[in-house]
Amino acid sequence: MLAIADLRNEYSKASLDVTNVLPDPVRQFEKWFQEAVQAQVPEPNAMTLSTVNALGGPSSRIVLLKGIESNRFVFYTNYQSAKGKDLERVPACALTFFWPELERQVRIEGVAGRIDAERSEQYFQSRPRGSQIGAWSSPQSSIIESRTILEERVAQIEKKFSGHEVLPKPHQWGGFEVEPVMIEFWQGRQSRLHDRIQFNKIDNAWKIYRLAP
Question: What is the pLDDT of residues 146-203, one digit of tens each?
Fold first, then answer.
């Protein structure tokens, strides 16, 4: 049996201090994100989105960051999905990025809101046609009896939009943007004495702190 407790890595690639981060944490995130892209981290825009479910408990899943606009983190989903309903009910949420190749993690806490329909439409129509068909076909997070139901819905949508290279955006699909109130940068260090630099927005200004690992 795998000895899970014995799995460990020593982190030694870099260090992090309040003196070598940018004063704006969103710009610091963009810097780290670009370094993750340059390091060819697989899907560097993959992030864990954590929301509050209907029972008041946590609910998490992986989604893809699709942009940073006006200092807000943007992603897209079905508004009728579990995460969409969670965010409509309780807009407070958290985003987590983990780039093990760089021994780095970023945690973001903030408040989500819908982006305007025009921006959602523009992004939707930039997606591959198969993804557009998928968004129309999937009643995301709903219970279905089998995959056959999805395949039948895909066939119906294909027929409905036959000859259309670009589809209109479904009304239930669109973007959210997360306005951050906390961003924490984590750099792995040896002996689990990791570097943690946290920014908190207080009175509309960013305050920076070092946290114990």
Answer: 999 999 999 999 999 998 888 999 999 999 999 999 999 999 999 999 999 999 999 9
Are 145 and 112 within one domain? Answer: no
Mean pLDDT of the chain: 95
Q: 8 burial class (0-12, 13-18, 19+ CB within 10 angstroms)?
A: exposed
Alpha-carbon dihedral sign for residues 187, 188, 190, 194: positive
Q: How far is CA 161 from the centre of its chain?
A: 30
pLDDT in tens, 81-131: 999 999 999 999 999 999 999 999 999 999 999 999 999 999 999 999 999
- What's the structural domain count of the chain? 2
DSSP SS3 for 34? helix
| Residues linked to residue 59 through DSSP beta bridges, in sequence order | 51
Across the strands, what pairs with 15?
none
- 147, 192, 196, 210: the catalytic one is 192
Q: Would residue 107 show up in a list of annotated catalytic residues for this protein? A: no
Tell me the CATH number at 68: 2.30.110.10
Nearest to 186 by CA among 26, 9, 27, 29: 29
The parent domain of residue 104 ranges over: 13-125+171-211
What is the model's pTM?
0.93
Helix (H) or strand (E) holding 120: helix 117-124
